[in-house]
Amino acid sequence: MIAAALLIAGLAPVGCVAGEGVAADLLATRLNERGARVVRGRCRDMLVVAPPAQAEAIVGRGWRSPGVAGEGYAVRRVGRVTVVIAAGTRGLVYGAGWVLRAWRGGGVAVAGPVDEAPVYAGRLTQIGYRAKNNSYDAWTLPMFRRRIEDLALWGASGVQVIAPVSDDAAASPLFPAPPIETLRGIGNAAHALGIDFALYYPLLGDYGKPGETAAEMARLRDLLGALPQIDAFYMPGGDPGHTAPPLLFGVAGEAARMVRATNPAARVWLSTQGFDAAGYEAFYAELARQPAWLTGVFVGPQSRDPVPVQLRRIPARYPIELYPDIGHTMHAQFPVDRWHPAFALTEGREPIDPRPLAMTAIFRRFMALTSGFTTYSEGVNDDANQFLWMRLAWEPQAEPRSLMADYGRSVIGDVRAGEAAFALERNWVGDPAANASIDATLALVDRMQGSGWQADSLRYRAVYDALVRARLGEARRRDAAARAALLRADGAVAIAAYAVPDGAEAKALRKRLFGLAARPHAGARLQLSVPLYGASSVERGANLDRVDVTLDDRHWLIPRIRAATDRAALVRLGDHARAAEGALYDDLGDPDHEPHLVRGAGLAADPPGFASAIDGIADRTPDDGWRMSEISYAETLYDAPLTLRYTGLDPRRRYRLVATWAGEDYALSMRLVANDTIELHPYRPRTRNPETVEVAIPAAATAGGTLTLGWTRPPGMGGSGRGHQIAETWLIPEHLTGAQR
């Protein structure tokens, strides 16, 4: 009766898994984890996972094998038998993954013939067994095997490990085993599944020094001798490292010969990361020589030239791979668009960050120009994004909702987890205090089933978002009460406004958050706190340690209230926007309070922000004595100007600009120009952080009733492109004289 019901419902029942090899074993194990109660061997309701010849021997008469090649697989239904075939282990693992995604309540949904192959050749994720990683430095080898199996089942072509020597500490106090032992085990696990084992090898030395290249090659030789066969070798030009292109190509050529001594088919990739404009030209000049040892170029964070530019400049023989940062929200390759500073201050750069719509848009914008990717990741905070990228590489035009439904159903155990990923992405749109969808998201995850760490990670994020929403609302009420008192010149009442604590809702959410944080740590060693879970720093995913960060201006304001010498000074403190002076004020970095900022293309159309203004925050908090408005800033990257535009100005008036230069701890010079032609000041560095800079605006600049201000930094610079940051501006009209009136 059960089998008949399954057939009527369009499901193929499975009583056993036949076929020899790792894919059949893995599939049987995973089906039993889902309560399927299958056995290995033959039966009437059989699922065969095998190469064509073996499948034919098992199924017998009536079976005609479809053609399969490369990484592809096929699924067919023959009577009561479901057959998954592929040419080799890798394809069979992919076919097993299809079965798991198609599994519905005891059977496989087989609507018709299935023939699948990947669209992109390179589909890797990076594993960093190092101290700064937010998870992996505490993982055991069985945990890595499980992770690699999960990603392979979703279509990964390989895993890339970071070499033991990188821009990090030599060891982590959380390591359960030495790095070489763990990396060796990761490589063996990948090869057992038929997928690639790749090595990311930064260059950290000074290769202009005699003997340094030879020493580096000796270190590489020792590493290669300790690891399984390397299938692909990735050497970044920078981030980390600072090797000029002529030296880079020399060292990389030596490394390529060494890698191919054990695997002649190994692929060798270089990147342009960190180069300035001159460095790019030198890199392109080296490529023009068309070295035969080079496979291609990968494009990652801190790449000054966008992918389309590099594609035009790189000889056609060299394919491009993308090295996308899928785990960071700010100070990153793909920052969250118009991210509110309250989220940035609390949840930070490396939070639980499912971004299905943004990731799909990034994939579709860039991947058509490339041959594949290796996702840059610092742990499991970006788990949903990792799985999404793997499936998009097979189905680039698939609806992300369908792919995330598969993630929810087959990875977490509840299709609602896929919807939760979209809901969490919506939570980050706009002002959290005004975003009622945050409450709806929390209700959704509260209904969601699933007891694993991935489900608990989504719950943690939903609770954190709700806590930020509650705390920000309370912080604003305190600030508003303090401002109102100051405008009455009542400093004592203003100070008392900050004595009001957070309410019961925030306290309950905080307590719940701490309880939830233990679960992803238990299941995936996700280090959400430095003191509790051993994270390397707050910036490395440990946002539980930012849960109590101040979101109001008390630490900036109260000392100034106490220092005020008269009532007028108190009133001025209450009018930070200088409305009484008629100022046009921008709190740059707060997306809802920067009316004069020229956004450019916007991050939806320009995900890296090469032609867009980006909202960000400094590496400070209000607890350091900074105003919220000083912490948030707007910036542009590389040579793009940071632009403000004003209209409706009074041509009779003179104006002056007051700007707060604040942001990350860069000391880069900036130049300010009005209307693209009038220099208001030449390049000058920020002398302190924050710094107030005042500039008189010439009458000619506002004679037409409009004004455009553009800050630029010296052209041609490389690195991250950041540091071009302004936190606040006031355009203040001077008083009209009697004659002017």
Automatic annotation (TrEMBL):
Signal sequence region: 1-18
Protein name: Beta-hexosaminidase bacterial type N-terminal domain-containing protein
Species annotation: Sphingomonas jinjuensis
Source species, domain of life: Bacteria
Keywords: Signal
